[in-house]
Specification:
Length: 261
């Protein structure tokens, strides 16, 4: 199912997913992506020391690529997980093919653009990053399109942290995207600001992450995007907002000009 021209939702099904347990709203997993020879997985799955270790247990001919994605929804009663994957490069609907498109285009996007019902892929559970020290306090989020599924999961979760109700107006999210068509609704009580580059430079929204927020009120910040944007946004919150480093969760989902390994 296409959520936007560049975001596709795919449902994974396996009997083992009935026992899978989400620990955090932005829990991620390793997707084992089949190559030209397919992916030969035993019915009972594989057990390794890490997702990379699991992939290494598969023979050379069928060894998969590995990429990380957020669990967008989990239906244990039917053994299903939804994952939202950004399509890039030739699979997008834009002719300009920005640096973001070119850099992030890879096996995940190519697989998502061509996968059909019944195709085989692998799922290796991971963990989440979202861990506010004071879940009832003022929270600030920053994401680009690659972190949009994770941020959407946090903002729409009925229980974003143990014992805490859904995020409301005390949370503010800033999402920077390349095009208007990358925007899709997020059903949340949090305040969401969309920043469209439309040919502008990456990071143009970072000076606005403190708009309407008194820095001393911030109890937690979550920053996930392209690595240089994460670094810039984190520095801004520390230098301009006085936010303590230990209150900031951050991750560079990809690095411009480099293939993710």
């Amino acid at each position: 199912m296409s959520l936007t021209p560049r975001m596709r939702r795919i449902t994974l099904h396996a009997p083992q997913l009935t026992d899978y347990e989400l620990l955090r709203p932005d829990d991620f997993f390793a997707l084992l992506i089949p190559g030209p020879a397919g992916l030969d997985l035993p019915a009972d799955g594989l057990v390794g020391s890490s997702p990379r270790g699991v992939a290494d247990l598969i023979g050379d001919r069928c060894r998969p690529e590995l990429r990380w994605y957020t669990v967008r929804a989990h239906r244990p009663d039917v053994g299903e997980v939804d994952v939202d994957i950004v399509l890039h490069g030739d699979h997008g609907d834009h002719g300009d093919h920005s640096d973001h498109d070119h850099a992030a285009s890879g096996p995940g996007g190519r697989w998502a653009a061509t996968v059909t019902p019944g195709d085989v892929a692998g799922f290796v559970e991971g963990n989440g990053l979202y861990s506010p020290t004071d879940p009832s306090g003022r929270q600030v989020f920053f994401a680009d399109v690659t972190a949009l599924p994770a941020l959407s999961s946090i903002l729409t979760s009925p229980e974003p942290a143990p014992g805490v109700a859904a995020l409301g107006s005390q949370a503010t999210a800033h999402i920077e995207v390349d095009h208007d068509s990358d925007i899709h609704p997020i059903a949340t009580g949090a305040t969401v600001h969309w920043h469209v580059r439309d040919g502008g430079p990456p990071g143009l929204s970072i000076p606005r992450v403190l708009d309407g927020v008194a820095p001393e009120e911030i109890s937690y910040a979550w920053i996930c995007a392209e690595a240089s944007l994460v670094q810039e946004a984190r520095r801004f919150l520390i230098a301009q907002g006085g936010v303590a480093k230990e209150l900031i969760t951050f991750s560079g989902y990809w690095r411009q000009g480099e293939a993710r390994t």
